[in-house]
Amino acid sequence: MRKPLMRIPYTDILPSPTIIPASAHSLQGALAALHNFFAAPPPNQLPHSTVVLTGAGLSVASGLADYRGPNGTYRVNKTYRPIYYNEFVQNHEARKRYWARSFLGWSSLLKAKPNSGHYAIRDLGELGLISAVITQNVDSFHPRAHPRIPSLELHGYLRSTKCTTCHTEYSREEFQHHLARLNPRWAALLEEALASGALDTEDPDEKKFRGLKVNPDGDVDLPDAPYTTFRYPPCPRCLTDPPIKTEGYRHTVRADSDGAWLLPSSAGVLKPNVVMFGENIPTHVRTAAEDAIDNAGRLLVLGTSLATYSAWRLAKRAKERGMPIAIVNMGGVRGEDQFFIDVDPNQAGELAVRVEVSTDDLLPTLVSQLRQRLASGSLPNDAPFPNDPRENSSVFKDMLS
Ligand SMILES: [Zn+2]
After folding, report:
1. Ligand 1: distance of its center to the CA of 162 in Å?
2. Which intervals hold domain Deacetylase sirtuin-type (predicted)?
3. In the annotation, is 155 catalytic?
4. Secondary structure of 346-364 as H, E, C letters
5. Nearest-CA neighbor of 355 among 323, 325, 330?
6. What is the radius of gyration, based on Cα positions, of the chain?
7. Do the beta carbons of residue 247 and residue 133 sit within 8 Å?
8. Three-state DSSP state, 127
């Protein structure tokens, strides 16, 4: 297979963070700093609402691997690399391999659930503290855990497939049934793996022992698998009515007698509805994410090293707007010094927070403390928290389908 020229950003270990404020080394100190972060009015008459930016670290407690954490995919599996968009679109063999691995990984992803970190975000929203969530995660946990807070899925979502020609969206769950029908031997292998508990175990060593590893993209590594026999269906719409290519010529879309996509088809390829490496984020998603930053007064970054440029530039945008930034992440964050370089060393969290605590430990306790303080009035009454976190939802009208 052709080796892509693109480099996966920041798979090396990032430098350890400087904890801000210095008192936030302990859990209690981190909680106090975040309390100050939410309680103080943002500077320069910025709005009182907070926008949250999340990454794979938030889903680790749901049993999914992250990319760059201590047990992250890039660290544990040195040869791992995600599929590239051009490879997927241009190469039938690459698609077979992708869908075979995705077929095996899907049931684990389907069973995984949002964790206490996601539900704490829901609760922060109900307290009126959060206006929107921007996530890099494709696991759909945010919209599931807090349907009333707008979730902007920067890199798409695995719950759908999308036709690369006509852009029709289909259910990934239904697609799974088609894959099982077209690949009975793989379906048997999957059933066996499920029955043995190899895909169920939460223990990474156990998974490794059984030769399986579920990656954050919802796929599974299976060394030496005969990927080339795997079959996948075409877009039903393009198969029935092949789209026009140019000047009246129609695309060719063919399927075998069982309904599997066949060469020389030139269209009707279904893709997971996620933004792959080398693929651009759709303009309306990018704009909505920028609007979410621009409509908020603070940025809370959870479980991400911001290694992906699309996420990093949103944090940079928040910084340029003078928004206080709090980062909760295990391990370093790309260029984080820039976010905190001009912060008053005597501030106690109201302008900047950097802590290294796992989100599922920190966030539920933060919620219960903030609840108590709101009830006792120790969060300032003159801080007009937005009454309804959905106020800004028109920004996300394209995203909430
Ligand atoms: Zn189509």
Report:
1. 8
2. 24-373
3. yes
4. CCCCCCEEEECCCHHHHHH
5. 330
6. 22
7. no
8. coil
The pTM of this model reads 0.85
Distance 163 CA to ligand 1 centre (A): 5
- pLDDT exceeds 50 at position 2: no
Q: Give the pLDDT band (50/70/90) at residue 382.
A: very low
CATH topology of domain 22-62+115-155+281-396: Rossmann fold (3.40.50)
Would you state the structure tokens that stand for residue 322, as one six-digit string?
């003078």
With 80 as the cut, is the pLDDT of residue 286 above it? yes
- Got the DSSP string for 33-73? HHHHHHHSPPSTT--S-EEEEE-GGGGGGGT---SSSTT-H
Query: Any known ligand binding at 271?
Result: no
* Count of other CB atoms within 10 angstroms of residue 67: 24
132: three-class secondary structure by DSSP = strand
How many whole angstroms separate alpha carbon 280 and alpha carbon 307? Answer: 16
Q: In angstroms, rounded to a whole number, what is the distance separating the alpha carbons of residues 156 and 385?
A: 29
